[in-house]
Fold:
Amino acid sequence: MSTIAIFNPKGGVGKTMLSVNLAWAAATLSKRRVLLWDLDAQGASTFILGGKGKRHDAAGAVIYRDVEPEVLIQHTNVPRIDLLPADASIRSLDAIFSEIDKENRLKKLIAGFAQQYDLIILDCPPGLGSTADQVARAADLILAPIIPSTLARRSFHALREFLDRHHKGGPPVYPVFNMVDRRRKEHRETTDADPGCPAIPMAATVEQMGIRQLPLGAYAPRSPTARAVEKLWHTLEKLKHDGKKVL
Ligand SMILES: Nc1ncnc2c1ncn2[C@@H]1O[C@H](COP(=O)(O)OP(=O)(O)O)[C@@H](O)[C@H]1O
Ligand SMILES: [Mg+2]
Structure:
């Protein structure tokens, strides 16, 4: 079992889009048993995957270890994707982790899934607080979606600095350009300067995920955006760090 955290301290950069669609690629193209853990109280992944809250305070109770994750985990409309949904009780997740004061709480909860799942995807909230510390210790790989603009790239550097300073570099971190619009000069120049970095194009069809409550691959598998996520997934499958496969 491996854990990928989709993380960037900035909001609105495509963490949820990437979480849901990578889950789809892993489950559908590679038949992995995937658990998507929605750690963002806004619950965008939960909504897209059709999650239904059983108890409105359960997501927080799982972190406190008052409720077994299995109570909350649900199947989704996509075969082999299960969801650990978010709710308002993790609105102050940083404060919850600080209060619990167990450095490896998230990592240990995830270790409990080793029998049932091949891949855990963490859809992370923005910020660089104690949730980010937990994520840095729990993840085998961090994917950081960034919009190819100067401001957005600064948030990636903030993440790098945070991991170097507080986590001895942490797990491998890979940036992924998202919402790439090659009609824009800044996007063209930024992506061309870094050809090794995966680039996911901007497309209106992405917004339909919320309306259809499905990942892109389920309704527009041939769209350039779905294809780019597919390519990214196959790259991740082969990815090596220090000579060892990451996933
Ligand atoms: N490649 C893309 N093309 C078009 N819209 C996108 C793309 N990626 C994300 N979006 C849209 O941008 C908004 C922010 O994306 P989201 O995944 O929710 O970001 P985050 O989880 O980082 O806050 C959403 O409305 C989403 O549908
Ligand atoms: Mg999100």
About this structure: Residues 11-17, 44, 178-179, 200, 202-203, 206-207, 225 surround adenosine-5'-diphosphate (ligand 1) (CB under 6 Å). The chain has one domain: 2-238.
